[in-house]
Design brief:
Blueprint: H1 2-19, H2 27-49, H3 52-97, H4 102-112, H5 115-128, H6 133-144, H7 147-162, H8 164-216, H9 218-224, H10 227-250
């Protein structure tokens, strides 16, 4: 029963993740695309090198490639939305100071806010027409899936409850702190970029060299067709995968934890 309940939850998480990439694809389509890329990689590498184990290795990488591409696209889109928050908050403050309600200011941001966040406020506009306003904010919080967005939306939720005058000063401080956090994050990512690229190259380069050797030398092809050759490629592939995962985790810029990520305001 627990397993059956877990499947719909995993499907919802996968669909939500795909929605954050901005690509109009389903999980099934992604699996199909990954299978096609994997098959093409397997056939091409096996034909080039004459070594089926290398073909399987490239096929496994090819299956993951569409997900890797969309993961990068998702990170870029969410990053642009995160970076737009200070400008969005400044616009919201302008509306609040002119006497517009918090809800009215959020609706205006659908047309006047920074471009990366306009779709988010259009979404809020649509949701708030049918749902309670705080529930609408909770939905877009989950879709943004970002600690800074959590913090901002938490303050906006309080503003909806308490009134604009109570949180104008809080929003002003939030603009400053958000701008400082984004500058620090950008500096950290720039400093680590070269190191991450070099580490990934070091993990993948041995397999590129091995493929060239097998493509040009019969002796290498003969050895890597044997069980020992399969073992070498398999163990090497596992080590490379572990290394790439470690690189991704160690190179991740530390960020604050998400707040109230699964619940509403108390």
């Amino acid at each position: 029963a627990d397993r059956e309940r877990g499947r719909p939850m995993r499907s919802r998480h996968a669909a939500e993740w795909l929605g954050q990439t901005g690509a109009d694809v389903t999980v099934g389509q992604m699996l199909g695309l990954g299978s096609v890329v994997a098959g093409a990689g397997l056939v091409a590498m096996t034909a080039l090198t004459g070594v089926a184990s290398l073909g399987l290795l490239l096929g496994a990488g090819g299956f993951a490639l569409p997900w890797v591409v969309l993961s990068r696209r998702r990170a870029q889109l969410l990053g642009r939305k995160r970076e737009a928050w200070p400008d969005a908050l400044r616009d919201l403050l302008t509306h609040l100071r002119s006497g517009v309600s918090v809800h009215g200011g959020l609706l205006l941001l659908a047309s006047s806010g920074p471009d990366p966040l306009r779709s988010t406020f259009v979404r809020y506009q649509q949701l708030s027409a049918a749902l309670e306003r705080r529930t609408s904010l909770e939905v877009i919080r989950q879709e943004l899936a970002d600690p800074l967005s959590d913090r901002v939306i938490d303050v906006i939720g309080v503003a909806i409850d308490q009134g604009a005058s109570v949180v104008i000063e809080v929003l002003e401080h939030l603009v400053e702190s958000a701008s400082d956090d984004l500058r620090l994050l950008a500096d950290s990512e720039t400093a680590q970029l070269e190191t991450r690229l070099e580490a990934r190259g070091a993990a993948l380069l041995p397999f590129v060299v091995l493929a060239l050797l097998c493509a040009t030398s019969e002796d290498y092809r003969v050895f890597y067709r044997t069980p020992m050759g399969w073992l070498v490629v398999g163990v090497g592939g596992c080590f490379a995968l572990v290394g790439l995962v470690a690189i991704a985790r160690l190179g991740r810029v530390p960020m604050e934890g998400r707040i109230a990520a699964t619940g509403g305001w108390q």
